[in-house]
Amino acid sequence: MSQYLDFEKPLSEIEGKAEELRAMARADEKLDVEKEAAALDLKAREMLTNLYRGLTPWQKAQVARHGERPHCSDYVDALFTEWTPLAGDRNFADDHAVMGGLARLNDRPVMVVGHEKGNDTRTRIERNFGMARPEGYRKAIRLMEMADRFGLPVVTLIDTPGAYPGKGAEERGQSEAIARSTQACLRLGVPLVSVIIGEGGSGGAVAFATANRVAMLEHSIYSVISPEGCASILWKDAEKMREAAEALRLTAQDLLKLGVVDRVVSEPLGGAHRDKGATIAAVGRALDGMLGEFDGKTADDVRRNRRKKFLEMGALSLAA
Questions:
Q1: pLDDT per residue as tens digits for the range 50-82
Q2: Is-contact 163 174, C-beta < 8 A?
Q3: Cα separation of 142 and 148, whole Å?
Q4: Which of 54, 116, 215, 283 has the smallest CB count inside 10 Å?
Q5: Contact 182/156 with Cβ under 8 angstroms?
């Protein structure tokens, strides 16, 4: 681990001591420190279990934003074969915050669209930290419509703080592009399945996740606004983000209970960043299962299922 979250600092000290001991042993072969290091490993695992057993919504938000979590490109590399990237909105530019293309998932041809945050300073700037501009949403619309014409299921991977709020984006019709992307999702006659792999922020996430099935990783978040943004509006104080995170009901567990998402995908102990391979494999199984639910369904069946899902959200029964 190279990056620890605030609430993991006690854990970092223990794991750091274990690594120091092993580094000393590598430098001096006469030293036998494995017993002491193993005891520290056991203590660290117990602490990690206790920490992650009772994460608060704000702590889950921190885990969802962890810089070492697997990103869209990691899932594409590991899960999909015959990946053929497609670029551009045929109108203004190619938005690097959104990646998309043709691929196969377990030999099933699909169209993949997702937010990409980047893995280091250079790529994060290039990818605009996963915040799409209008051309990103218009690229997604183009790819979804192409998938519909050729009868290909669509897979979307969501990881964005929200759509980019810059002046240029607003001038080029950011809100209209988000609305059109959401509309395109609803019109598809092919199955659309989504996974929230990190942050699902505001309309920027909904524009890709108006899907037949939506899954969330265990420690991901999905909300109309960030905890900091909510706190700034309600309390005029961004430092009240912990209270805002509680009120927003943004965790996968809360949203599953509310019927906003359809399944929660378990993460390894300590979060997706501690075992990327296991996390990616779990997401692959979830995608395969969700797509399998629509095998043999007609285009009308698929559209009806998707629209019914969203129309029923928040519906109240007036029956006595």
A1: 999 989 999 999 999 999 999 999 999 999 999
A2: yes
A3: 10
A4: 54
A5: no
Tokens of 106: 């377990």
Look at residue 27 in the predicted model and tell me its pLDDT: 66
Residue given tokens 């962890």 in the structure block: 66
Task: Return the closest-CA partner of residue 155 out of 204, 200, 99.
Answer: 99
Angle of helix 241-248 relative to helix 57-64, nearest 10 degrees? 90
pTM: 0.90
Other Cβ atoms less than 10 A from the Cβ of 21: the count is 18
Q: Which residue has the tokens 């043709």?
A: 102
Alpha-helical regions (H) of the chain: 9-27, 34-53, 57-64, 72-79, 121-126, 134-150, 167-171, 174-187, 202-209, 227-234, 241-248, 252-258, 276-292, 299-311
The secondary structure of 70-94 as a DSSP string is --HHHHHHHHEEEEEE----SSS--
pLDDT in tens, 178-224: 999 999 999 999 999 999 999 998 889 999 999 999 999 999 999 99
What is the rounded CA–CA span in Å between residue 258 and residue 307? 17
91 Cα distance to chain centroid: 27
What confidence score (pLDDT) does residue 29 get? 65
User: Token digits for 193?
Assistant: 């399945």
CA 204 to chain centre: 12
